[in-house]
Amino acid sequence: MALALLVSRVCDLAKSYVATQVEGRINEFKILYSKQNQDWFSELCFCILTANSSARLGMKIQESIGVEDFLRLPEKELAGRLRELGHRYSERRASYIVQARKFSNIRDIVTGISDERKAREWLVENIMGLGYKEASHFLRNVGYHNLAILDRHVLRIMGEHKMIDEIPKALTRRRYLDYEARLQSFASRLDIPLSKLDLYLWYMKTGAVLK
Question: Are residues 164 and 93 in the same domain?
Fold first, then answer.
């Protein structure tokens, strides 16, 4: 019954004005897929910044700093900019971004990996500051469709509709993949990709369709 209710809620949103916003975001992700390494690196920085923070703040910082400064600013100066813009973890995030610069050709790397799940494993293993959630977020934002972004909003919805028994404080790799498989099954039931389902679920909790 709980899952049937969620099906109904998502279907209602898919018939409303929200669908236009969701399609707009998906198109933005498709466009970003065809852009250059530096555009992908900017999006990577955005996803590093949103960990334990918010998408709104990440978008604000991404727009304010810009990819050139993400790529060139000394770590201390970058940390100062992040702090001025309101990031709670400015020093650590600046360190992660500076360390990620050795992968400034991130588009070439990721598109050279044949499978999106293998690409996610590479990101988790090589990019400091990215766990499975953040790596999935990055890949979704650059045009991949079949990975779940298991943030607190999505996990709460899964808990409320009995898709999971509890909302964990932390997700191991094994549990992340288990929960992702459950969400994938639900997305298949709706005949939509996980990339689109995430935007609808996020809207249900926040009233916004952000990236």
Answer: no
Q: What is the CA radius of gyration of the chain?
A: 17
**Encoded tokens for 137:** 């977020």
Q: How many domains does the chain have?
A: 2
- The boundaries of the domain holding residue 106 are 35-141
Does residue 1 surpass a pLDDT of 80? no
pLDDT tens for each residue of 131-171: 999 999 999 999 999 999 999 999 999 999 999 998 888 89
Q: Is residue 211 part of a domain?
A: no
The residues carrying an active-site annotation are 133, 151
Would you say residue 54 lies in a domain?
Answer: yes
Do residues 129 and 46 lie in contact, with contact meaning Cβ atoms separated by under 8 Å? no
Which residues are CB-contacts of 121 (< 8 A; sequence separation ≥ 6)? none
Q: Are residues 133 and 98 in the same domain?
A: yes
Residue 46 lies in a domain: yes
Q: Would you say 164 and 155 are in contact if contact means Cβ atoms under 8 Å apart?
A: yes
Give CA–CA dist 169/104, Å, rounded: 32
C-alpha distances in angstroms, 87 versus 3, 55, 56, 110, 181?
Answer: 37, 12, 11, 28, 33
> Which two structure tokens, joined as six digits, stand for 101?
């610069």
